[in-house]
């Protein structure tokens, strides 16, 4: 099931919350279960849901005719898409249907008020899903002062995240300030974090308040660190863009001034473009490319009427003309070497043999070694 925009709905009579009898006391022992995807819904919110046509839409209709309560449970494996008893978590949230509207494709759009956690004890029916449930009581798990201190920490960290995250709306910030109960505060903060569905579900399944707040504090700390890293990366990228833009504008201004003063003409521009094209085709090590780029930058600023201009130009000409390609492996012709030695040097057989041995060893080494550079 998915959340979505709610069209004008008709009120359902007879299912408004009773102002005298506590709502918890009238929660039913059995619930129609509606599987939801991606993330669970937390207690204490009013949210729209779109239930597609089929057995779950019929379950909603049956619920409206009865007590108007249904159970929202998270799917374990969304790729499986089998909405069976084996593919849903044991803990969910009971919700009361406040309003509904039938959509043209036989789907149902409902507005629900989520109330509290429940635990599936057994299944009464599996098509559609109907379960016998219990409603675990929330346990403190820690002294009151400890819980109070943890709640303050939660509030401070949430404010820190809200200040650094533009996705936090003013409405979220106001809601956060108006929540006084530790359990509801933990649920609200968890609901606005960007977590994996298993992490959300672990909070849903935490009935001990101390454990729940500790989990949310851990998730909150990770979120703050992530936002901090994202901001740092964003600032670095922005600084780089600003620097590049500044350099571009300065270059353009310098070109305009040089053209205005007649310092540089089209001949210079052609020379610069020629060097730039050579640099692109230069097959050299990164250190060489970096050095040529640096010299090319200096060349672009140089005044053709100064000595520096000619020095840099000659240097670039030399760098570009050097053979940066890997040198071919040259194998020495030993037969030819022997004939040359015999022709030019009479006798000295031992010396000529040593020379030929040296050349033969060099041939072997060259064949085994990677190509060298000039």
TrEMBL record:
Residues 31-224 form the Lon N-terminal domain. It holds the Pfam family LON_substr_bdg. InterPro entries: Lon_Prtase, Lon_prtase_N, Lon_prtase_N_sf, PUA-like_sf. GO terms for biological process: protein quality control for misfolded or incompletely synthesized proteins. Signal peptide: none annotated. It comes from Leptospira interrogans serovar Icterohaemorrhagiae str. Verdun HP. Keywords: Hydrolase, Protease. It comes from the Bacteria. PANTHER family: LON PROTEASE (PTHR43718), LON PROTEASE HOMOLOG, MITOCHONDRIAL (PTHR43718:SF2). This is ATP-dependent protease La (LON) domain protein.
């Amino acid at each position: 099931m998915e959340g979505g925009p709610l069209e004008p709905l008709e009120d359902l009579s007879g299912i408004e919350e009773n102002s005298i009898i506590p709502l918890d006391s009238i929660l039913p022992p059995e619930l129609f279960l509606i599987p939801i995807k991606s993330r669970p819904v937390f207690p204490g919110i009013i949210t729209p849901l779109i239930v597609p046509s089929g057995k779950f839409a019929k379950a909603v209709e049956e619920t409206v005719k009865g007590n108007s309560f249904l159970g929202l449970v998270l799917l374990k494996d969304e790729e499986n898409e089998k909405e069976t008893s084996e593919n849903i978590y044991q803990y969910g949230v009971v919700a009361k249907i406040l309003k509904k509207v039938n959509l043209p494709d036989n789907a149902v759009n409902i507005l629900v008020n989520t109330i509290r956690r429940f635990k599936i004890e057994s299944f009464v029916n599996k098509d559609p899903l109907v379960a016998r449930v219990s409603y675990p009581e929330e346990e403190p798990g820690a002294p009151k002062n400890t819980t109070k201190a943890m709640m303050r920490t939660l509030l401070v960290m949430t404010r820190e995240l809200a200040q650094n995250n533009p996705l936090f709306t003013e409405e979220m910030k106001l809601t956060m300030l108006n929540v006084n109960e530790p359990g509801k505060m933990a649920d609200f903060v968890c609901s606005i974090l960007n977590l994996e569905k298993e992490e959300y579900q672990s909070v849903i399944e935490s009935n001990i308040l101390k454990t729940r707040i500790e989990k949310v504090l851990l998730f909150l700390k990770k979120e703050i660190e992530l936002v901090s890293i994202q901001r740092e990366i964003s600032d670095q990228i922005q600084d780089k863009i600003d620097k590049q833009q500044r350099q571009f504008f300065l270059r353009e201004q310098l070109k305009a001034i040089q053209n205005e003063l007649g310092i540089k003409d089209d001949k210079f521009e052609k020379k610069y473009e020629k060097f730039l094209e050579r640099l692109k085709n230069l097959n050299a090590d990164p250190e060489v490319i970096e050095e040529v780029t640096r010299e090319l930058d200096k060349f672009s600023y140089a005044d053709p009427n100064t000595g520096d201009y000619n020095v840099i130009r000659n240097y670039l000409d030399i760098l570009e003309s050097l053979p940066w390609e890997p040198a071919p492996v040259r194998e020495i012709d030993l037969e030819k070497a022997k004939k040359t030695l015999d022709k030019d040097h009479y006798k000295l057989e031992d010396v000529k043999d040593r020379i030929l041995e040296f050349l033969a060893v060099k041939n072997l080494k060259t064949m085994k070694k990677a190509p060298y550079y000039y």
